[in-house]
Amino acid sequence: xxxxxxxxxxxxxxxxxxxxxxxxxxxxxxxxxxxxxxxxxxxxxxxxxxxxxxxxxxxxxxxxxxxxxxxxxxxxxxxxxxxxxxxxxxxxxxxxxxxxxxxxxxxxxxxxxxxxxxxxxxxxxxxxxxxxxxxxxxxxxxxxxxxxxxxxxxxxxxxxxxxxxxxxxxxxxxxxxxxxxxxxxxxxxxxxxxxxxxxxxxxxxxxxxxxxxxxxxxxxxxxxxxxxxxxxxxxxxxxxxxxxxxxxxxxxxxxxxxxxxxxxxxxxxxxxxxxxxxxxxxxxxxxxxxxxxxxxxxxxxxxxxxxxxxxxxxxxxxxxxxxxxxxxxxxxxxxxxxxxxxxxxxxxxxxxxxxxxxxxxxxxxxxxxxxxxxxxxxxxxxxxxxxxxxxxxxxxxxxxxxxxxxxxxxxxxxxxxxxxxxxxxxxxxxxxxxxxxxxxxxxxxxxxxxxxxxxxxxxxxxxxxxxxxxxxxxxxxxxxxxxxxxxxxxxxxxxxxxxxxxxxxxxxxxxxx
Amino acid sequence: xxxxxxxxxxxxxxxxxxxxxxxxxxxxxxxxxxxxxxxxxxxxxxxxxxxxxxxxxxxxxxxxxxxxxxxxxxxxxxxxxxxxxxxxxxxxxxxxxxxxxxxxxxxxxxxxxxxxxxxxxxxxxxxxxxxxxxxxxxxxxxxxxxxxxxxxxxxxxxxxxxxxxxxxxxxxxxxxxxxxxxxxxxxxxxxxxxxxxxxxxxxxxxxxxxxxxxxxxxxxxxxxxxxxxxxxxxxxxxxxxxxxxxxxxxxxxxxxxxxxxxxxxxxxxxxxxxxxxxxxxxxxxxxxxxxxxxxxxxxxxxxxxxxxxxxxxxxxxxxxxxxxxxxxxxxxxxxxxxxxxxxxxxxxxxxxxxxxxxxxxxxxxxxxxxxxxxxxxxxxxxxxxxxxxxxxxxxxxxxxxxxxxxxxxxxxxxxxxxxxxxxxxxxxxxxxxxxxxxxxxxxxxxxxxxxxxxxxxxxxxxxxxxxxxxxxxxxxxxxxxxxxxxxxxxxxxxxxxxxxxxxxxxxxxxxxxxxxxxxxxxxxxxxxxxxxxxxxxxxxxxxxxxxxxxxxxxxxxxxxxxxxxxxxxxxxxxxxxxxxxxxxxxxxxxxxxxxxxxxxxxxxxxxxxxxxxxxxxxxxxxxxxxxxxxxxxxxxxxxxxxxxxxxxxxxxxxxxxxxxxxxxxxxxxxxxxxxxxxxxxxxxxxxxxxxxxxxxxxxxxxxxxxxxxxxxxxxxxxxxxxxxxxxxxxxxxxxxxxxxxxxxxxxxxxxxxxxxxxxxxxxxxxxxxxxxxxxxxxxxxxxxxxxxxxxxxxxxxxxxxxxxxxxxxxxxxxxxxxxxxxxxxxxx
Lengths: 513, 828
Known about the structure:
The complex is a heterodimer of chains A (513) and B (828).
Chain A: H1 21-27, E1 33-36, E2 41-46, E3 54-58, E4 61-65, E5 72-76, E6 83-88, E7 94-99, E8 104-108, E9 114-118, E10 125-130, E11 136-141, E12 146-150, E13 155-160, E14 167-172, E15 179-184, E16 188-193, E17 198-204, E18 209-214, E19 220-225, E20 228-233, E21 239-244, E22 251-256, E23 262-267, E24 271-276, E25 282-287, E26 292-297, E27 303-308, E28 312-317, H2 323-326, H3 335-339, H4 363-369, H5 373-379, H6 384-397, H7 400-404, H8 409-422, H9 429-443, H10 451-487, H11 504-512
Antiparallel strand pairs in A: 1-28, 2-3, 3-4, 4-5, 6-7, 7-8, 8-9, 10-11, 11-12, 12-13, 14-15, 15-16, 16-17, 18-19, 19-20, 20-21, 22-23, 23-24, 24-25, 26-27, 27-28
Chain B: E1 8-11, E2 23-24, E3 30-35, E4 38-43, E5 49-54, E6 60-66, E7 69-77, E8 81-86, E9 91-97, E10 102-107, E11 113-119, E12 126-132, E13 140-142, E14 146-153, E15 160-163, E16 168-173, E17 176-181, E18 186-191, E19 205-210, E20 217-221, E21 225-230, E22 239-244, E23 250-255, E24 262-267, E25 272-276, E26 283-286, E27 293-298, E28 304-309, E29 313-318, E30 323-328, E31 341-342, E32 349-352, E33 357-362, E34 367-373, E35 389-396, E36 401-409, E37 415-425, E38 430-438, E39 445-450, E40 460-465, E41 469-477, E42 486-495, E43 501-506, E44 512-517, E45 520-525, E46 531-536, E47 542-547, E48 555-560, E49 564-569, E50 574-580, E51 583-588, E52 595-599, E53 604-608, E54 611-618, E55 626-633, E56 651-657, E57 662-666, H1 675-685, H2 691-705, H3 710-718, H4 726-733, H5 742-753, H6 764-774, H7 781-803, H8 808-827
Parallel strand pairs in B: 9-13
Antiparallel strand pairs in B: 1-57, 2-3, 3-4, 4-5, 6-7, 7-8, 8-9, 10-11, 11-12, 12-14, 15-16, 16-17, 17-18, 19-20, 20-21, 21-22, 23-24, 24-25, 25-26, 27-28, 28-29, 29-30, 31-32, 32-33, 33-34, 35-36, 36-37, 37-38, 39-40, 40-41, 41-42, 43-44, 44-45, 45-46, 47-48, 48-49, 49-50, 51-52, 52-53, 53-54, ...
């Protein structure tokens, strides 16, 4: 025989954003910490090694921040002009940065003065990066050239002059020490091989390229420029995989989540969008106060750091999940109680009888199962969706009046409070008005005995009157709109548009009478 | 080639199972219940119907085991006869002709007569009389020797009970409890306080049960009380105690048989209550049995209970209050809103079942396949409650989709409507809820239909409602990166001058949709949802609407409430013909152009839309008005040659009358077709299930296919009997670690399996198993007599050899096999 069937809780359509596992994940950050920098934050880079410090490039300084510090733990300020693109080496011990005057400086994290200076670019160097073998540096500059430098003897090894406009972004492959990619304002992204001294693949982005990103495997390349983010399949020789147009201003920065499953893009339209890297659909988006120039994610997505044009650095830390364990929990039964009898081997003449698994029932369902109707109703007066479903169920069982009757001042005022809160919502109105009528019928003889309850009734009355006025106004508007529609010439005489009328109207009039 | 017998209307299954208490066989293997003119024998273990005992010519009203032979069964019927059956073989043994309508039957162990309830003169006065059953060898015996026992009793057998091994009989009616003592030949009558008194207004007696060992009578009452009467042999000193749990009337009571220590009661709450030691606080419950408990019976061995329910169901319940089997017939006690449908997958008949359920009922096996819970809410059975009703249902896309509509209306303004769409899940082989639409319309939904065209790639559903709109629902892709999902959304809302939409119908190819708005039929293009044309005959509101099929697909038929059947031609947009017929049912055949219509005066017309002259007319098909009808495609086409019957070649027409009897047109009775499989089951059941059976049974099946190994087969078939050979049982029961080596045992074991000479004669016996499977029935009287003689002679020959090895029950089975075997030889 079928067991007890729990009450079906009516699901109402939820307005606004749909809750998915992604929105839960990306909303699980604390309120951002704002740090004021001296100028627009052009680059944020996390050290790949613990303790995962990050370097922030703004104006002529590079600040290194610790994970939770709001003050920089170190500052590099040996730049005569604006510094660009401070980037950590893979081991986290060296830092390289370009500058407006065309120089490139290499710092030791523990030191203060630059270890090496690479001179050779004639104009501002906007992008620098270490190659995979750690001993070379790639740089791109506004003089349209891309250069490869040797760190030990601080010499220029190669120069590529294939771009025809400013080179503003670049990135070295994490796997192959000879491969790197640069993006330029000439709308192209080129992949260079240090062994061939020319570009091996060139793709046309269509807009000035602001940011490029290679996937850790090196198979996919992401380029951002204009309003577009484009994903290229490098293994197919630079075939366009997908083109995303989700921002309405220039996309300035790109970043991958630590798992590689999500791609983030920041834009001048003050939004950060999160894409799934399997379907390339937007799964979440963040809003910021100003146009975004730089974006970085810490190890395990623990921190999101966003740099903006107004010089503000926004740092968001993930909420710690250990909170629940801090509560003193009841001691659980020992492990052996769970396996008790489970490991028993069936003997020859034994008949194995399985105990039927217990179905979990909500507390209100347990009450309803045992016909404790008032208790069931009292239990659910918090969330209106559940309450309305329970009231419906009690009504179906024909015991709603019994559940509402026989309450003292405190109990009835709880119910009245609930009604006052939710009566005016059209989706609950038909059920709640019925309940309100029953309450009025039951407690009419004793009205005037308790000032608290009387006050609640008056409140309810005022609410209903307000609602009636509101509905009347709505109807008037509807009438006007109908008039307008009627005057318009219609081609189809048969298909009429239905306008939403509030369900609560009829009921409201009834209670009024 | 089917012989051209005359076509007649026959009942097809769906007969009641809950008319009287069920009766168990002594070994609790079978349970018997009356079912219309038949008695059905069910196996308690497998829920299968193993026999249908047919022979009565009217409703069977009572059955009892023969107290002196546990393999026999008495039954009585309205046709005035008491019949004695051998239920193991399903053979009628004797018929006693009493001559008046018999309403109930009771049998006692100590006497050679049975008790029956008969109706004397006035319609409402019943008597309990005992009938002496004369001993005679003839088949039909007159039993006219009636002796009067009790007068003015209730017609129902629930109100009569025999107690304390037949020392007294108790009967209740209205406010009286009468007890008749057989030894003293006196009657005592106890009266409860009158009904005028408001407090006791409802203490009418409803049922009675007697303690099997003690002088104790339990009575059930309309107010839910159970009274236990003691000391009733003295009219002054009698006492009673009250047990009260039921809040509504007590439908039936039963004492547990063996010691009588517990009392079972049931009622409308559909909870079986067991009162232990007859005390108020010692109660056990078995709740949620699904429907009102009508009858309770207890097996003679005391290990099983059986409850019969108002939804045409019997539940076999184990002693420890665990339901072990459910025997479910066609649920019939409720209104049929959904009409009759055919599930395209299972070819099962689908209609309203238990409250809130759709039942899938197999027409071939007269058995419910399963119940689909549509409303999914706890069912509270209380008088006067307005329940959610399942009002509409439709299958679409070859059974892949099911749409259901449920509604509940307490007051004029408070209508709760819900439409649910179910998809067929191939993995679980069942329907799974896909989309739930709250308030799909603002008023009652009058019709819904799927577009069943073959080419349609997108499933489409149309609903019409009294709010003046029809809505088109389509399946849309609802998937995102997390999951794949489909859901139904409203695609189009149409209306016509604010008339109520009453019917809808898709044409066969799905290109046109016809929607009727009261008196007007509108035709819509299903691609663009444009109104194409309208038909109006001003002949009353349209009640039925359907398109013609195949060659007649250019016709549209509509039946109106004023009794006019119209046929429009869609090519010329004009009325083709019309006829004055007041239709109740208008049902197209999915396999042909034929359309069946049943008029208010219970006349069936079968016609093609292309010609107004009907192919077939039959008048007075049933006493009541037919309510619903459906064509069921046949698995194997029949081949009627006569022109009048050709419409039945590819489909069968079933219809349901107002009293919910399911009828069909056939040349033979469908009950005849039910037997072959059940016989087979019975035969297989008799084989003992030993470890050897499992090992060798497999061999046997394989080798039955292999005709070459027939000699070997004979040996193996016999082997199930070898469980009694001591060597083997020893081998099986000794733990392996104390046994000698296998090589040592091998020769002994093999020797024990060889056939010794003395058991040779028994070799034929298992052979008969297959023989019997092939044979369908051996009921003729001549053969019966003959086999009995043969059996006697055989026994003297073989008895000694076998009997020392076999238990008594097995011996009986062996006899049975022999009987069948020899009758088969005579048939040759």
